[in-house]
Design goal:
It comes from Carya illinoinensis. InterPro entries: Double_zinc_ribbon, Zinc_ribbon_15. This is Zinc-ribbon 15 domain-containing protein. With 108 residues, the protein is an all-beta fold. It has 2 domains: 65 residues, no CATH class; 31 residues, no CATH class. The chain is built from no helices and 5 strands. Strands 1, 2, 3, 4 and 5 form a 5-stranded antiparallel sheet that branches. Strand 2 and strand 3 form a beta hairpin. It is elongated and about 60 Å long.
Length: 108
C-alpha cells in the first residue's frame, strides 16, 4: 500500500505591527515586525490555522521570518571616524585594508 501526501505547515503574516522595524538578516532589505500564524495545508488547501507565540520580523523581499533579536542593529552614529573609513552602503567603520565590508558584505 502506498500513500502520497502533499502538504505541510507554513508561516503566514497575520498582521503587521510595525513597518520597517529592522533589516533582514539574509538580504538586508527592510523587514516588518508582524504577528504570524502557522497554516497546515493538505493538497495546497489550508486546513488548520493557529497563531504564533511571539511577534517575528518578516522580510517582504525574501519572505524570511526571524526573531526580532536577530535584526541588524542600526549603523553607529559616531562622527569622529572620517568618511573614507566608512562603508558607503551601511555607513559603519571599516578597516582601510578590507576589500569588503564585514557588516553588510558589499564591495568597498
Amino acid at each position: 500500500m502506498f500513500f502520497f501526501f502533499v502538504g505541510g505547515v507554513e508561516q503566514q503574516v497575520r498582521q503587521v505591527l510595525t513597518y520597517g522595524a529592522g533589516k533582514c538578516i539574509a538580504c538586508r532589505s527592510p523587514a516588518d515586525l508582524v504577528e504570524y500564524e502557522k497554516v497546515l495545508k493538505l493538497f495546497f488547501v489550508p486546513v488548520w490555522r493557529w497563531r504564533g507565540k511571539e511577534p517575528l520580523m518578516h522580510c517582504n523581499n525574501c519572505n524570511l521570518f526571524f526573531p526580532p533579536s536577530y535584526s541588524l542593529p542600526p549603523p553607529p552614529s559616531d562622527s569622529a571616524v572620517p568618511d573614507v573609513l566608512r562603508c558607503r552602503f551601511c555607513k559603519r567603520p571599516v578597516e582601510p585594508e578590507f576589500s569588503f565590508c564585514p557588516f553588510c558584505g558589499s564591495a568597498l
